[in-house]
Amino acid sequence: MNNSISNVLKELEKQSSLEKSRRVDVPQKDRMLAITKETGEFLDMILRLKKAKYMLEVGTSVGYSAIWCAEAISENSGKIITIEKNPDKIKRAYENFQKAEVTDIVTIKEGTAINILKELNMKEENKDFFDFVLIDADKENIIEYFDLILPMASTGGIIITDNMLYPEKYRADMKKFSDYLKVNPNVRTTTLPIGNGEEITIKIK
Description:
It comes from Candidatus Nitrosopumilus sediminis. This protein is α/β, with parallel strands linked by helices and 205 residues long.
């Protein structure tokens, strides 16, 4: 891992720890709400095993997860599209991407996830295109997000969904989502107790 990426990840991990400890008072809308370091390491490994090249992320926040993924996907000259609606978080994410020197890899699309996913879904060139997807956004629309994403995932493509187990207030929604996936004949899926809980879904046809 190069120094630019390593330094930014360490800085963001320190900030995330402070937020979680409540030692700093950060408004809810401005909190990182990022994946854990353990999940970042897991994503990095899966991307390398998959040799993924084209990634879609729903929920940029301040860019922590995208930087982890950019570190791996860059080895295949890959690209990441990440979606975020909060202008303040977009500004922070772009600054972090600059410091990590990954702006040539990551493209931020600003707006609501539903609208942007619908736009991407309508483009013929995006059918069966993304070989790796990370969903880490609001939980209320998680099934609709997935349904829009699945046609854009390549056969054998991996879709990872965060927060399957924690925070506990989301468990009912995420259990409903997991059950929904399990009856879909086009995917195979399982929940792993990594970080905040990750749903690992593979598109089989």
